[in-house]
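Recall that a protein's primary structure is simply its ordered list of amino acids. Everything else, from secondary elements to tertiary packing, is in principle encoded there. The following example makes that idea concrete.
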Amino acid sequence: MTLLEVDGIHTSYGISDVLFDISVRVEAGESVGLLGRNGVGKSTTMRSIMGLTPPSQGSVSWKGQKVNGMPTSDIARLGVGFVPEDRRVFPDLTVWENLDIARRMHGDAEQWDEQRVYALFPELERFRDRRGGHLSGGQQQMLTIARSLMGNPELLLLDEPSEGLAPLVVDKLKEQIAALQAAGLSLVLAEQNLNFVLDLSDRVYILEKGEVKFEGTSDELRQSPELVSRYLSV
């Protein structure tokens, strides 16, 4: 079943065109990577999906329903979670309060609650009474992901989740994201960290100057050093 289908979107910031005919799809239970250097349109693709920067052309569909023009809050209620690049925790609220404010219960499916996110991120339970602004960068990233899970999404968009984190923290985060995959959550990972994405993704898209330059499996990209060199090397 196709959860998300992005079909030929064009997105601009004012008079500056950023995305050109971007098409991406995500199947149920699938993890998809968006790769590319800084500034190629990965974050804008995420924002276009969530309605934060609506595309001027093309369509974004969720389970076959066109969601173009919907408020971001309505797209989230349909089952799409978003973890932004800048880790927008509420700095004056405790870890528990950050989680509680995002709680959303629906349907009969297994729900994400505090105990389930604490099982995934034990560090958050230890610091449940600490204010969000007093957490480390890695802890804030965990909290941002955990807060998104409290909305019980079917698809989670993660924008540059490893950026700015120490290698040991990145390794731990990779394990936690893999646990989300094992729980059946569908994922989109926008990243510059090639190995991070390839280890976690079934399929990948490479973006360059707002266009898709490659679509294929992670294994196909591993076997194409010329593509890595052309589009991903610094």
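The chain has one domain: 2-232. The first strand starts at residue 2 and ends at 13.
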